[in-house]
């Protein structure tokens, strides 16, 4: 037995595993592979040789597994630190990992309440839950799109409780607004049947949550009106709805976990935006838009569809293409951002 590991009763480790799962849940429910990657990055940044710094996903999973007869207190400390526990509280977690050695099976140690208090725990998930979606028991498809997305998910910013510092936050928001304005300009210049004006909104919503995403989505539309006149003022509502749906899709529904879930996320955003854009277009702008979709509205209207049906169908068709492409583009940009940050600092971008 390693000198770092302590012999404990299975009942006490089950309680400790439950406590760790609660912490993992409040940190955004990162996968065991994500946690392993963060620990490795911290070790490398501290000067540990690469071979010694690497930690297997299965090793991290074992820390969370109930019913163990050994606990590695030092590894527990590394796990809770990358899950967002402050340095001053990490020692309390390590003491709690060691203390069951003197407790009877099923009895909580006296120092159990020394660590952070967290909410109710979700059911512990087996490792197979975090593999790419497919038929039960099916082997992963080497080289497939699901496998490719799964391989980069360890760079995904999963922690919901942490924010970049104020300077980084302001820079990211400003860049996102700029991306939205640039996309809208390109779409308008070439009269494209899609908008390309919410890529920055999606990046911020996926990274920072629904409310900041909503602010960027609405703000980009309003800034665009300052430059070109108040021709589409009410479409700020559409940008806000898009930001909320992207943020909720990741934070609440975990729709970034596979390419199929990303596709569903894009479709959900498309339907939500159409539900808002249709009444805005009909009521505020008399079913007229200064955009490439106007040609489709005219065709549908000439075919006998009323203004509501014509606008809804034209908008939904364009939105499905636009929002699905935007969702995958935003995911790709975040992966690149995480990789760049890890390369320059030796650790994933702080959540």
Describe this entry's structure for a reader:
There is one protein chain. It contains 14 helices and two strands, in the order βααααβαααααααααα. It is mainly α. The chain has two domains: 5-126, no CATH class; 166-345, Arp2/3 complex 21 kDa subunit ARPC3 (Orthogonal Bundle), CATH 1.10.1760. The protein has a two-stranded antiparallel sheet with strand order 1-2. The protein is elongated. The relative contact order is 0.10. Residues 1-11, 100-162 and 345-351 have low confidence and may be disordered.
List keywords for this structure.
351 residues; mainly alpha; Arp2/3 complex 21 kDa subunit ARPC3; 2 domains; two-stranded antiparallel ribbon; 2 strands; 62% helix; disordered N terminus; disordered C terminus
